[in-house]
């Protein structure tokens, strides 16, 4: 007769619940994988599949009851690790979308908003376009696969236990937010420079010809020049986004203490 002890049952539960918690936290916070357009059943199924595949490769788990207080602390640590890894890459997409919103505002498209179900709120048209472009680049460099590979690697470098991410790492993550938004501003700088020159020219033209209706001429002119500059600078966005994603993966590697992955081509 098959007999299962309580210790064996707790070990089996821990080998599935603890890695599943980290995986679910990453999927919930990561770009693309955590999109609200993906059904929750698909996310849960993906997380369970990854947990089943990863469970046999895990280092020796601590002999702690998953339902005890120490087991609950381990669950919280896994949530923090997964959220930190996903949030580091989510900031990159937020910076790109912020650059698009700045460009749209300077083009006079601040009113061109629509409801974005992924963000559960209003979003500007240009910002959404920049976000979709960043998503395509992310897929082209297999960013989602690189993120899953780093997740699997994190279980070997940060094994499940009472030791989590060191405190200075969160300071690095906060500083990363400032750096990546500066890169987003640089992404929008060519279009902003052209629009600034256009607005200065319109100001001089209005001063020279006061009878000119600036609202009838200025809006279509800034809109046309903005769209033209976006189309001209769009081919140069790819290497910049590639570098931003590479820096994001390097930060994720630093969070878990791994070597930075090779730069994506």
The 3D shape can be described as elongated
Q: Are there runs of 5+ residues with pLDDT below 50, and where?
A: none
Overall SS class: mainly alpha
Q: Provide the domain count.
A: 1
Helix content: over 70%
List the strand order in the largest sheet: 1-2
In round numbers, the mean pLDDT is: 80
* H-E string: HHHEEHHHHH
Distance, first to last CA: 57 Å
Give the tally of β-strands: 2
Number of helices: 8
Description:
It is found in: Cell membrane; Bacterial flagellum basal body. This is Flagellar biosynthetic protein FliR. There is one protein chain. The chain is built from 8 helices and 2 strands, in the order H-H-H-E-E-H-H-H-H-H. The chain has 265 residues and is mainly alpha-helical. The chain has one domain. A two-stranded antiparallel ribbon has the order 1-2. Helix 3 (69-107) runs parallel beside helix 6 (167-208).
